[in-house]
Amino acid sequence: MAFRYSVAKAFIILISSLPHMLLEIFAFCLWMVALDRFNKWIRYKISRKKQTNTKLFYEFKLILISYVKYVIPLIVIAAFTETYVADWISHILS
Question: Coil, strand or helix: which one is 50?
Answer without folding.
Answer: coil
